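Message: I would value a second opinion on how I read folds in token form. Give me a protein, with the fold worked out from its sequence. Write it directly below this note and I will take it from there.
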Amino acid sequence: MIKVQKLHNELKKRLNRVFSDYERAITVVDVDSYLNQAKEILLENYSIIVEKNRTLADRLRSIEIKNHELSYLSTNNKSFVFKLPDNHYTTLNRYGTGSVNDCDVVDEIFINNIFTHKVEESLRNFNTSPNFNWRETFSNEDSMGLHVYHGNSMIIKKVYIDYLRWIPDVAYVSGVANGVYVNQDGYSVTEDKHLEIDDKIIWIKIVDIAEYLIKKNFDQNYKATLESILFNEKVYINN
């Protein structure tokens, strides 16, 4: 866990090099908002970062959860529904076990992912419909959880996923002068919320992105791009 004060101190050190009066222009809550936005950008671009930035990709593996078995919730006429983890951000891979109706043979099943609007079409299409002979089916996610479709041809026994875990927002409550902290969503926060990451390279990258966002807002001549920040590996030298 990285203390939120450490994030603020690092960002303050960098910004003071650019404009010394930034503290009058940006509040503690503003800084937290930029840090949280930076964290979101990092998560949203995870798959691209893994492809293009080997150094950061290796460190980001620490927020991947592998082989997590989902809890069964219910069955309907199209699918088996499984509960996604509370700290789930996005699913990276999915697989499971199953059997055909009235058969005790259980085997591994590959689970594809499809868009919701393709469900009916995929169920009707012989080439894509759930098929135990091919050990293959498909799924999608909604607010209920992960739906794994059976096509009235198989029973889904267990489902496992590899997923990216959610990183909660940070809040530097003790850094607010009057002790009253209301975040960007309008909610009161009463205690510091630290960054739930241990890897130095990841938190430095979050600060890099936050620094970029602030400079982009306050300096019209700032020429850096988000891509240059996300995919730059040289920033890790000597960190």
Notes: The helical segments are 4-15, 22-25, 28-44, 46-52, 54-60, 119-124, 200-218, 226-230.
